[in-house]
């Protein structure tokens, strides 16, 4: 261990949280939670059944009737208090993220987390969103305005790779707009969401405004279909999104979908190659073991610098320590479970048959001691990847990078846009005009030029195509949770029927 003090690996008891209730046994049975770091069961997680979901929706609806009338300044105050509590409890939130997902344990030492940033940002919006005044055309005059109103109960479903971050990207915006929420995290990662429920309670939110029910896909389905749920906000895979869309179709229920990606990093020959490779390797085979939706898991490098990029990327990847995410020397922690490790290694095994050249990695890492059962995969780099092969097209969601060469700008754009996904796009060049041209032409909802950060709260994030639709972050992230009503007021007698002007 290079860290000075050992960090506790104790888990916390998980409950179904409805209003003020903490329920230890749910109607959906129990999940024996397996820790990705050790491969051992570390908790018994109650799973919500349809009856629990039904009750949570009713409690949330009851709370909504008050919360929608709560002055926006009070909603702001509570959200700001919650953000402060996130800061005060940052070490514990980081610790639980490491236990949940195997994310590197990085206490931020006073720097607010991404989650705290989102909460604070939407606290600010709570009392600042203004309506539009619209001109009237009736002969006697007419005045019109818009009202932005909450939906009611929002069903929030998040996946396992960053449950607290995902909750923070959705829930504060929903609450700021006057909705209440029923959250279903994945049973694979229950600890962070449980702790968030504690912090919400401590912040003083009225009971029922925020409810958390760990559960399986069946619980998610019950939540989506519940008649009191007026909008769904989902983060997960495209297959699940498609079934949620089908479930929503009968009642024409709206939903936001934040889905997967196969984002390309386009490296032109005038770029700072070392910076591009350091950043590209970290966000594909390092941090979170590649399990990030918007990571640049494809690199497209211009022919003249291609060999150098392949060599540099693999060198950086080889330098990464694979191991215990509580160890501060570790860069690449475990993947989430055995099924994920098997799936990732399957894609690695098949890639050479489609022409990809394995440059480094490619194997399961077997560590000793208490990590012996953990799910570790070597940072893996493939070169000469056919953009239309399985590796070039499908989201691996593990520490595997695919590198392909391109000729010129138009070839780069064509290859970057050659998947059904459209989440992130990354551009590296010192030619500003080229950067802006390429940014405009990428089929992606979120473009980063020369290392611009991910998940900046004031910039809307969200994908196109198979990566979903709808936004989180920015004003647009708030508007996802508002319904706009137009109100017209006629002055004096108006004509019996009036259309437009
Ligand atoms: P899934 O789509 O399998 O699961 C996501 C959530 O949906 C889980 O809570 C899951 O519960 C639940 N669920 C499963 N079936 C249903 C159903 N029929 N109705 C309602 N809810 C259901 O997620 P993955 O494991 O595939 O997650 C990884 C994916 O998430 C990747 O594609 C990744 O890119 C994407 N992602 C996107 C992000 C973004 O913001 N764009 C951010 C993070 C990840 P359970 O776990 O119990 O099955």
UniProtKB/TrEMBL annotation:
It comes from the Bacteria. The active site is at residue 258. Keywords: Oxidoreductase. PROSITE patterns: ALDEHYDE_DEHYDR_GLU (PS00687). PANTHER family: ALDEHYDE DEHYDROGENASE-RELATED. Residues 32-486 form the Aldehyde dehydrogenase domain. GO terms for molecular function: oxidoreductase activity, acting on the aldehyde or oxo group of donors, NAD or NADP as acceptor. This is Aldehyde dehydrogenase (NAD+). The keyword Oxidoreductase applies. The keyword Oxidoreductase applies. Belongs to the aldehyde dehydrogenase family.
